[in-house]
Amino acid sequence: GKEVEEVPEIVDDKAIIKVYYEIDELQTKEIKYTVEYYKEGAITEEDTQREEKIVQVLEPDILEVNKEKINIVDKYFGYKLQKIELVEIEDSEVVKNIGTQLPNEVKHNTTIRVYYMIDEEQTKELSYTVEYYKDGEKQEKDTEVEKLTVQVLHDDTMPVNKEKINIVDSYCCIMF
How far apart are CA 29 and CA 149, in angstroms? Predict the structure, then answer.
């Protein structure tokens, strides 16, 4: 057998024409996945991430998930991870709830949806103080502090418990 650069015009009887191919590293394609974050079911568009990779065209359409770039712990103050969904688009959109762990790899064009919900266990304490004065002098023993524990996202206001504030007969013979 002899090596030739082009297909010969004629060959001997029972000849074998061997054609050799090698992978063309210059033929590439882009594969990608998207990460979307949701708070209480609403997407936070500004936090959407895209991961892209250029691979040779014969490579499978599978990407390794860069877990370090996806926050499933504490991305949003006052929230906790609820669930993770994978949205794969083939003939139609297929949504898979995968619990609370990120996958190691995903198919090309997959969207990873990371859902956060309000964490009722993240709390803060609000308070106000009621001070009583008699003849302009603060009555330390009568000072009362009202406290209320609320979720950390709650604003810093609380209702006044009017029944606990004595404005009628705290001290004999003094008018308010």
Answer: 55
Q: Which DSSP category does 158 fall into?
A: -
- φ and ψ of 158, to 5 deg: -145, 155
* CA 33 remoteness from chain centre: 15
Q: CA-to-CA distance for 82 and 58, rounded, in angstroms?
A: 37
Residue showing tokens 């139609």: 92
Whether the CB-CB separation of 29 and 54 falls below 8 Å is answered with yes
Q: Closest Cα to residue 41, out of 121, 117, 120?
A: 117
More confident of the two residues 115 and 19: 115
Residues in the chain: 176
Total-model pTM: 0.76
Taking every pair of Cα atoms in the chain, the longest distance, rounded to a whole number of angstroms, is 130
Start-to-end C-alpha separation, the chain: 117
Report the alpha-carbon distance of residue 92 to residue 89 in Å, rounded: 6
Residue pair 111/33 in contact (Cβ under 8 Å)? The answer is yes
